Amino acid sequence: MDLVLSRIEKDPNVINEVIDYLRSEIRSIRFNAILVLGELGRESRSGVSALTECLKDNDWSVCREALRSLGKVGDVTEKTISEISLLTKNDELSIRKEAVIALGKIGIADDISISGLIDSLDDESEEVRKEAAIALGDLGFGAFKAISHLIDRIRDQSWQVRTEAVKSLSKIGKGAQNAIPSLLKALGDKDWRVRKAIINTLVQIGTDAIPSLLSYMKHYNPIVRKGVIEALGEMNIANPEIIKEVSLALRDDKKGISGKAADALRNIGKPALPQLIESINDPNKKRKNLAIWAIGGMEDDASEAIPYLIKVLKEKDASVLIEAARALGKLGHIAKDAIPALVELLKAPNAKVRKEVAVSIGKMGSSAKEAIPGLIEALDDKNPDVRWRASESLGLIGVSTDEIISSLNTLIHDQCDYVCEAAILAIEKIKGM
Q: Which of 390, 387, 280 has its CA nearest to residue 343?
């Protein structure tokens, strides 16, 4: 086959010889000729008529390969589409499956193709139903007549069929909003892959889905509520009602919901910042930490929250201090006003707090120069993780003085290998600047 393909590359007329072989009485020759034409794709469109005749071959495997090759060629006639559609009802499973796939690849959304694919959505085979759903999605806007049938497949017994039906609804676009009620009802699906596909489709539908999504915010099923919040967050729409409802969900104690709410507010960005700042003062430690985490992920949009995060650094709970330090580190140089408070925490009684503070200072880079004395002192910390992170941060700040180099040199023979390595790398980084 490779030899034939190389000959065709040098002389395109060889394609005609290959097409003639489709009429050979020897099964293997017909089969290999079909494979070659399929490999050539659109280059072999002159062989479409002969390939179409192979769909009637007495050998089912030849018929199957002809379907595959016609799908790869793509540029086919109405007669070919009609012949392929008839094969979606063939007794042989593999032929029905390949016929459906071929219609999707050919990509012509005429009444014959759509009708054949709609019928295949009810096929007894899970594989055929799945491929039919995929093919309809591949036909895009032209397959809008199939929307009600795809909606029915959201209740299919197979999670794969349900998933592909949902995905195709978003690809078709026109009329997909009609699927919103069914999509929301299916948000409690037992399979996470189906739920994820539903969320993505609702996000694709966009603003038309918002009223229905908001009406599901108090659904009895926490899995549904979680999916609704995720969809609203991924839309990134600064709608006051969305912000209000999602902020209320921060208080939902069911597993995972408050986390999804915090993530959604982070995605919405600056318009949601006031609600997150308010939650920083929540007496519930979990909600407080989630709000701090969300603020840390908002980058420059979170600048107004920095004074509130600095205030949090005066609290006593280690988990809160760690979350606040991490958030300030993520904000980088815009959080440089927090450096004095962070330096104070390099002396905190909890070693994990000291370590995270050292990391966060380093993330502020050259804007954290005033933290250098505190970091040098931290190089003598009894906890090796603190020494390690303090070394790294000095390297990231990048200031070279005799005191800094000398202090880092004392760690080159530290009892912990990773501390030694961090000190050496920091010295190299500083000297290389």
A: 390
- Coil, strand or helix: which one is 157? coil
In contact, 338 and 346? CB cutoff 8 Å: no
Contacts of 242 (CB under 8 A, 6+ apart): 210, 214, 232, 235, 268
Residue 415 buriedness (CB in 10 A; 0-12 / 13-18 / 19+): exposed
In angstroms, the CA 192 to CA 198 distance is 10
For 236: left if phi > 0, alpha if psi spans -120 to 50, otherwise beta; the answer is left
Extents of the domains making up the chain: 312-433
CA 148, distance to chain mean position in Å, is 27
Contacts of 373 (CB under 8 A, 6+ apart): 343
Structure token pair of residue 13: 């007329």
Please, what's the b/e burial string for 130-168 (b: 16 or more CB within 10 A of its CB; e: otherwise)? bbbbbbbbbbeebbbebbebbbebbebebbbbbbbbbbb
Cα dihedral across residues 235, 240, 241, 242: positive or negative: positive
Interacting residues of 375 by C-beta distance below 8 A, sequence separation 6+? 346, 358, 361, 390, 393, 394, 397
Model pTM above 0.85? no
d(CA 391, CA 424): 9
Q: Give pLDDT < 70 ranges for the chain.
A: 4-12, 174, 433
Q: Give the three-state DSSP class for 317.
A: coil
**Tokens (6 digits) for 28:** 């293997």
Tell me which CATH code domain 312-433 carries: 1.25.10.10
Cα dihedral sign, 365-366-369-372: positive
Residue in 133, 137, 125 with CA at minimum distance from that of residue 172: 137
